[in-house]
């Protein structure tokens, strides 16, 4: 099956309207022309990011707020027939996933050389919340954010999917305090015997030791390590292990958690990029996370096991006493959000057609649909 036919089938799978998409090959680029009525189903506000333009939009059929992610073409090496491969991967994975803590892919549509993905609108992300000095993160708040992350991740792993890029700014939060895992551009099905993967995944600060040593065969442990780093960041309010190179990252890990040995991590020396490190005894987690209780420290130790063989999986983590002990996790509407988000959600009018002023701090300006689909 050709790439363009695969794309067309994906578009058709999202329901009526997509079936009449016209796909034409011009200069080795797939152009997808959609009916005007479908394109005009969204009234958009926009903001430009590195690899895509993300718009806040209103679905004029359901009168709901959504996010429209307009994917730009990648380089020749990154694209097939004119569409970025990570976008296709994201579409294929997300159309199969339905969970309260996984971002919902509502629609997909194409126009010219772009493909747009329509998601739930999420007001902020965990990185913004962590960095906001006006927000107090209580133990109950931290437990709530961690529980929602773990529940979403357990669903992915049960369905044989590795996220491979968990970090605070990929954990999205809406104005009701619901956290959803987002950005599936690096996600991958796993579980095939002897299947080899790239080790250049996960942002370095959240990258598991086996990836830093060049492992090409790995499992859910890489996501669990990232969750451990995120939990540590929720407690410290700064990144836990901010290495500036892979070597520095490993050094920081071993300084805190101790250098692994043949006994604690069998077959470590067989990894492609293994190098011998100075022996560090490690630092007791209690000395770093002084406000954490024993149950949280036990969970952290299980998530941050240097050896992937001993690291918790999702089921083990969710069964840890930490989640059943008091305090109970804060309910979503009571979770803290940046004050600007609270104010916007309380005062935003249903009619989004009013023009927004473009501000120096990244505010959005209203875009006519002709502008959205002009390139």
TrEMBL record:
State any GO BP term from the record: positive regulation of transcription by RNA polymerase II
Question: What do the Gene Ontology cellular component annotations say?
Answer: cytoplasm; transcription factor TFIIK complex
Q: Where is the signal peptide?
A: 1-17
Q: Which residues form the active site?
A: 165
EC no. given is 2.7.11.22, 2.7.11.23
All residue ranges annotated as the Protein kinase domain in the record? 40-323
Where is ATP annotated to bind?
Answer: 69
User: Where in this chain does the entry annotate a coiled-coil region?
Assistant: none
SMART domains in the cross-refs = S_TKc (SM00220)
Bias kind Basic and acidic residues: ranges: 344-353
Catalytic activity as recorded in UniProt: [DNA-directed RNA polymerase] + ATP = phospho-[DNA-directed RNA polymerase] + ADP + H(+); L-threonyl-[protein] + ATP = O-phospho-L-threonyl-[protein] + ADP + H(+); L-seryl-[protein] + ATP = O-phospho-L-seryl-[protein] + ADP + H(+)
Residue segments, region Disordered:
323-353
Cross-referenced SUPFAM superfamilies, in alphabetical order?
Protein kinase-like (PK-like)
Where located? Nucleus
Looking at the record's lineage, which domain of life comes first?
A: Eukaryota
Kind of enzyme, top EC level?
transferase
Protein name, please? Cyclin-dependent kinase 7
């Amino acid at each position: 099956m050709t790439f363009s036919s695969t794309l067309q089938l994906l578009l058709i799978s999202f329901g009526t309207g997509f079936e009449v998409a016209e796909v034409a090959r011009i200069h080795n680029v797939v152009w997808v022309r959609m009916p005007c009525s479908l394109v005009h189903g969204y009234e958009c506000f926009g903001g430009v990011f590195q690899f895509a333009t993300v718009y806040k939009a209103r679905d004029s059929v359901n009168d709901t707020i959504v996010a429209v992610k307009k994917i730009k073409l990648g380089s020749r090496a990154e694209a097939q027939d004119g569409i970025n491969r990570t976008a296709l991967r994201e579409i294929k994975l997300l159309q199969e996933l339905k969970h309260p803590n996984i971002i919902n892919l509502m629609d997909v549509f194409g126009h010219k050389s772009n493909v747009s993905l329509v998601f739930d609108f999420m007001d902020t992300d965990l990185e913004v919340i962590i960095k906001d000095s006006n927000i107090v993160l209580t133990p109950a708040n931290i437990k709530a954010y961690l529980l929602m992350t773990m529940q979403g991740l357990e669903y992915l792993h049960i369905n044989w999917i590795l996220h491979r890029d968990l970090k605070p700014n990929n954990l999205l939060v809406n104005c009701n305090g619901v956290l959803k895992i987002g950005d599936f551009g690096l996600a991958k099905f796993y579980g095939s015997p002897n299947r080899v993967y790239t080790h250049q995944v996960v942002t370095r600060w959240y990258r598991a030791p086996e990836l830093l040593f060049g492992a090409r065969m790995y499992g859910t442990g890489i996501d669990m390590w990232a969750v451990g780093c995120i939990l540590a960041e929720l407690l410290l309010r700064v990144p836990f292990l901010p290495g500036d190179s892979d070597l520095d990252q490993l050094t920081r890990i071993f300084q805190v958690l101790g250098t692994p040995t043949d006994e604690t991590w069998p077959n470590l020396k067989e990894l492609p990029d293994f190098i011998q490190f100075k022996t560090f005894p490690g630092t007791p987690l209690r000395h770093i996370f002084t406000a954490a209780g024993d149950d949280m420290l036990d969970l952290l130790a299980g998530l941050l096991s240097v050896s992937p063989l001993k690291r918790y999986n999702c089921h083990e983590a969710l069964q840890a006493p930490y989640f059943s002990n008091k305090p109970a996790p804060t309910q979503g509407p009571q979770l803290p959000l940046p004050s600007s988000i609270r104010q916007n959600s309380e005062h935003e009018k249903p009619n989004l057609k009013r023009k927004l002023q473009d501000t120096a701090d990244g505010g959005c300006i209203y875009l006519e649909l002709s502008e959205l689909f002009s390139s």
